Amino acid sequence: MNRTSAMTLLKEYNKEPFHIQHAITVSNVLAWFADDLGFSDEKDFWSLVGLLHDIDFEEHPESHCDVAPEWLKKAGYNERLIHAVVSHGYGHCKNSPKPEHLMEKVLYATDELTGLIGAAALMRPSKSVQDMELKSLKKKFKDKAFAAGCSREVISKGAEMLGWELDTLLQKTLDAMKASEEAIAREMAES
Fold it and tell me: Which CATH class is domain 3-190?
């Protein structure tokens, strides 16, 4: 289980640059949270889960999280990684288990939120998260018409699952994306 083989597997099933960028973003955000929450020794694992979390979405949006276990098992990934990957679909994918480990809860909470933050960044003159503040992110979060595909309910449930105030989740995820923005751009340019 390494990043190179995980990226190869991701690209076997995902061709759209948007989906690849989302996977890289979530991967980097989870790696940041691993350090932030005291799990630096598991940083690579958290990052792999983030990279592979939507592996089946592009080809199977209607049965997202149902096909992923088969693909990941065939590629040699263990049950722990598979459980983590499919748990992010809890409540909105048919067979997804409830997130149990802290990392699974962070993935659940940040998956949709990274999309919202990314969309908000594209609306800024800088096209970057670097100059984004919590106040403007909260405005975008409250505007249900903005990035309507990003479920505010899932984000709020994720904060609750983590035992955090919503503002804490928003700020930490924004901080993670700020810290990762260059690395994400570099990895996208290489892929």
Answer: mainly alpha
